[in-house]
Amino acid sequence: MSASIHLEATLFSGQSFAWTQQDGIYQAVLNQELVSFTEESFHTVVSSNPQLRHYFDMDWEYEKALSHLSSLDGHLSEAIQSYRGIHILNQDPWEVLMSFLLSQNNNIKRIRSMYQKLSEVYGAHIEGPWYAFPRPQHLQGVTQRELRALGMGFRAPYLLDAIQNHAILAGIPLLSDQKASEELQTIKGVGPKVALCILAFAYHRQQAFPLDTWMLKVMKTYYPGRDASYFAPYAALAQQYLFHYERTQGGRS
DNA sequence: GGCCAGGCCCCAG
DNA sequence: CTGGGGCATGGC
Fold this sequence. Notes:
By secondary structure, this protein is mainly alpha-helical. The chain has helices at 7-11, 42-47, 50-55, 62-70, 74-83, 93-102, 108-122, 144-149, 156-164, 168-171, 177-184, 192-201, 213-222, 235-248, and strands spanning 20-22, 25-30, 33-37, 125-127, 130-131. Strand 4 and strand 5 (130-131) form a beta hairpin.
């Protein structure tokens, strides 16, 4: 059993936009159900629930991966020391697809608020202020005008194309990384970077190494001339540490 | 109040 | 194949 998961760094490092944290309570709707826990109750809540165990990826080889990555270089080792316990979640592919369509030329705060907006307007009501993220069938018939009125901006047509072609997602597990990426990119608004985020955060492909503006800066500064292969076979996990570290303290005075 | 954000589309060369 | 403008919006 792996040591400890770093809940805050895992849930707020830009791989999921479903979570809130207030007064020490983490909450989100998963599988049409409200999930709540604190740092103290997390293990009790999760260990008795196989679906949550899988969602939080509690049985993967994090010890082995971190031991390897820490040996690579000082910068990565520092990022790992700072946030040891980041897990890569096994999220629903549909929600990850939609989330990262929203992500382009956008910031994490606003991605989260747009995700919540779609949930409140089109998703099933769960309880109190909580809504599930809408399934594709809940979004049939939605128009571009509606989506733009909700503030989705130029991403509206991309969301519509994803709604029409969501069936692509079911076939992704059968494909190689390369073929899977090409298949995802047949959806409008999905380019190389968004495809890699989907492969990493929904399909747990460890070779996926998405490069956004932050990661481009990291690579230029600390890893000139290198690429994902340097971090193999744990590129996705390395990327998540480097991304989060850069956005929080790394490089800041 | 301008700059920037987990980019991509589209069109020129 | 590569480069660069345009794109909606709001947080800061």
